[in-house]
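User: Can you predict the 3D structure for this chain?
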Amino acid sequence: MRIALGVSYNGGAYQGWQSQRSGLTIQDKLETALGKFTAQRVSTLCAGRTDAGVHGLMQVVHFDTTLDRDTYSWVRGTNANLPRDIAVQWAVKTSDAFHCRASALSRRYAYVLLESTIRPSVEFGRVGWTFGALDHDAMRQAADILLGEHDFTSFRASQCQALSPVKNLLEISLNRRGAYWRIEFEANAFLHHMIRNIMGCLVQIGQGKKPPEWMAEVLAARDRKAAAPTFSPDGLYFLGPRYEAHWGMPDRTPAYDALP
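Assistant: Here is the predicted structure, written as structure tokens:
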């Protein structure tokens, strides 16, 4: 039997999603919790690996098991063994044809950015921060340059393991509520550090340090050295993948709309 789970987490205390010897990853904590609930070794796959410090609102995972439990039991039983900053939001019994990664049509992220002369305190670790005022129109012009299918080598981390730097960036939305910016990205897939490197460029453009057309120069360079420094992971949230409706996966979680 194949089970899919929607998992949310605050990534501040963890070394990213992927299992490591330290055991301080989301995958390690989830598989340990599932093992305690099932009394079996459980191996999970995820829809999109997140880096250290990055948060997840609807990470989708799947695993195979011989146990038959109702879906709410999978939620409650797993959560009973998870730390307080990780929680299963939902469970779905699905077919063996479903693959949380390969079946995804696209993936979505949001970056929450505080624009303030004072650094964050209560929101520390949960928002990025910029001291200078940002120009929405300039950032919008720059973001539009990135839409569509491009070679995103300039925004790719050196340790990225993707087979190709060509990705299709479907949407970038920029919204402001008070001192907070919420910038959402949707693409067929993302490169390692791609969003954080784009954010570094958008902030420089928003602050007037670079003109909007600089984004086209960075993109065309296909050279990581042409872009801005990698931005902080603190405000980055994995919103989750999109699937075809017939898989029966929820499209979002309540926490999705709770972000600024």
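Residues 120 and 129 are 7 Å apart (CA to CA). The radius of gyration is 19 Å.
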